[in-house]
Amino acid sequence: MSVRLRIIEEQVEHYSDTSGDQKDIAFLKLACSLLQGSGYDDLEPEDIVDGIDEKQIDVVSVEEDAAAAAIDVLIVQAKNQDSFPTNYLTLMGNGLSWVFEKPKDEYTKLRNARLVKKINELRDARKRLGPSNMRVRVRFVTKGDTAKLSVDFRHELDEIRAKYSAAGFGEFSIEPLGATELVDLMAEAERSKKLIDDDLVIRYDRHVPSFIKYTSAGMTGYICTVPAKEIARLVTGAREASIFDLNLRRFYGIEKGRVNPDIASTCSNSRESSLFWFFNNGITVICNSADVVADKDNPHLKLKNVQIVNGCQTSMTLQNMFAQGKLRDDVEVLVKAFVTQDAKFISRVVLTTNNQNAISQRDLRANDDVQADYQRAFKNVYGFYYERKPGEFRSLKKEEFKKTISNEKVGQAYLAIVKKRPTTARAQKYRIWHPELYSTVFPDTDVGKHLLAYLIYSYCRTQKRAALQKWSNDEIRYSIVTYGVFHLARVVARRFTTMETWSRTDQVDAWIRQVLENPDVLKKHYGPSVTLIRKLISKRRDWAENIDNVFKATDIECALNKALNP
User: Fold this and answer.
1) Parts of the chain with a pLDDT under 50
2) Pairing relation of β-strands 59-65 and 70-78?
3) Cβ distance 232 to 386 under 8 Å?
4) Residue 358: predicted pLDDT
5) With DSSP H G I counted as helix, E B as strand and the rest as coil, what are the percentages for the chain, rounded to 5?
6) What are phi and psi of 168, to 5 degrees?
7) Up-side HSE of residue 299: CA atoms within 13 Å toward CB?
8) Which residues on adjacent β-strands are paired with residue 284?
9) Exposed, middle or buried, 352 (CB in 10 Å: 0-12/13-18/19+)?
10) What is the Cα–Cα distance from 385 to 364, expressed in whole angstroms?
């Protein structure tokens, strides 16, 4: 099961449980809420035409914009299944002919009164405003994978698309949507809730060139100078949680990192504060739109849906110094604003502009779709906070913070236990972010295995202190507990689950519940696991003489595999 499929199934189950709707209805309403940008319960009952004589159409929504003299039509077929059957699409194509083509004396004989009313409504709007003022969106929605559509399905889709694209509509589209597209819509909806618009005060002098507007290859950018206190205001309060979503890293703190102490010192130093503009690389933002308002009394840069993609450390250091009353009035910051919604361009900007503090491979992966999917799945499915960026959940309350999990530790635990490579997990953790291992450690599958592996690893790690005291006089056991936590977790996991391969999602979830409800369920496996590893090490003098190195080599992995699977 893919991560995105699991996310959608959990959402359907959630809405079904909380609303009392059957799962098929919950899936339909979830799909429509994402397509319409509305709430789960906002779908009008009369728009649901599912039932007898439905013609494989579940929803017909007709929204008329009187001011613009335009009609927005949404037609949906939703199947709560993980495939895209061609015959359903064919039947839906036939249903569209009933909606748009059949004469009135035919379609009014349909036994589905709600569908007849919607056809009447649509035909009336088309008659009054004309088809050229109609935007028609047809969506066939399942939980399937659109990358695996059959040849017959694609052929049928092309035929329907060609037929109605030539029908004179202002716009016509028909698309299959699966779990991948639905999660993308969920992410878009989440981002839309956090939109930040701002009027950023800038330095402006009509007699002196004080800002630059640059346009090239269809892109537009602005370069201007902004009072530092404006930047502090921009990132203050609730905005901090979302304005850095596209940034690779969260704020390290005033005293951490290579540059933050210097930023704090310069902006508060009376001898250097006026030179801050020259010493700092500035801030880069992306936005949906930007306009300079050249008003001599209130010059500002009007930004829509702004994100700071480079300059988190500068912005938050200035904000902290302002809060302490140490930010001087003459501190000014260079700001570059790029107007774009091009995801590829944004990614390039993020990667090429982040160079003040060292960037790790983990940082570079932070905004990957798979990492965002894992974060969403960990929270929606299991209630854990999956940390893509160090420090991003530091504002959580104490009890919530306890459920924060580093994606790096999750990756290490998964590699050690599920992929049976504890040596790599322990000695070469940086490799989990490299191309040759990344898709293996973070596959497009259910995240339950990742959580279970992490919980077992975490248990072994928390037992370390007590174990070190217990075995302080046993050099081999002491070294195993010290250096071999990932190898130990590998053995504990095998003993606890009695399986080398975790193939059933329901079984994995049952194990997760066991460990969460009673972590000591692993206790009876911990001591024997240490003993097993001790026996393996004791058999080889070269291992016993340098146990730390044992856990940095692959020989111990092979020995463990043989011991666990005789």
Assistant:
1) none
2) antiparallel
3) no
4) 55
5) 55, 15, 30
6) 95, 5
7) 13
8) 310, 336
9) exposed
10) 20
Give alpha helix (H) positions in 333-387.
343-353, 361-365, 369-377
Strand, coil or helix: 437: helix
Q: Which structure tokens are listed for 35?
A: 């397509």
Nearest to 1 by CA among 508, 563, 554: 508
pLDDT digits (tens, 9 = 90+) for 139-190: 999 999 999 999 999 999 999 999 999 999 999 999 999 999 999 998 877 7
Pairing of strands 283-287, 332-339: parallel
Minimal CA–CA distance to 47: which of 100, 108, 101, 122? Answer: 122
In this prediction, residue 204 carries a pLDDT of 83
Q: Please state whether 541 falls in left (phi above 0), alpha (psi between -120 and 50) or beta.
A: alpha
What pTM was computed for the model? 0.64
What CA–CA distance (Å, rounded) separates 486 from 414? 10
Helix (H, G, I), strand (E, B) or coil at 136: strand
What are the tens digits of pLDDT across the range 349-391? Answer: 877 776 555 567 787 788 888 999 999 999 999 999 999 887 7
Q: How far is C-alpha 415 from the geometric centre of its chain's CA atoms? A: 21
The pLDDT of residue 454 is 96
The pLDDT value recorded for residue 192 is 63
Q: How far is CA 299 from CA 190, 212, 236, in A?
A: 32, 14, 21
pLDDT of residue 218: 83
Residue with tokens 């040849």: 151
The H or E element containing residue 423 is helix 422-427
Cβ atoms of 51 and 110 within 8 Å: the answer is no
